[in-house]
What we know:
Shape: globular
Number of strands: 8
Helix content: 10-25%
Distance between the termini: 87 Å
Order of helices and strands: HHHEEEEEEEE
Number of helices: 3
Structural class: alpha+beta
Strand order of the largest sheet: 1-2-3-4-5-6-7-8
CATH class of the domain at 46-149: Mainly Beta
Amino acid sequence: MNSIASVLSISLSLFLFGCTQTSKTPEITAKPETSRDSAILDGHNSSNSLDVDGLYKGTLPCADCEGIETEIELGKDKSFVKRTIYLGKDGRIFEEKGFYIWNSEGNTITLSGIKNAPDQYFVGENELIQLDMKGDRITGNLADKYVLRK
């Protein structure tokens, strides 16, 4: 009886040991897909999927005036014309022209030649979202005010 119990014990041990996974490959953990990840995976981004040329308008916040009426016209040849009027000031129209370039992810444009003002815009469907001087999204209570729409 003792030998039967020993044989069963050894058989059970071998069976359980044989069922354990001893893979030497690293475990891959799933990461939730973000829109940026999917754009990289399938090759689609703002620069190759959206019709970006056209006129974008809006009134952006201003620290020392009633707002900055802003128009940015993007051309098919990657040219731009930016017009701004500081509301509550002298009414003068400021106009800047140049070309824009896309970032490596294809979701943000930089307007060439803009000095002492934000020059980067995240490009969405029929909208440009002004980024701060470092190229980051503006946050806080006024974040939704930094959008120009077609």
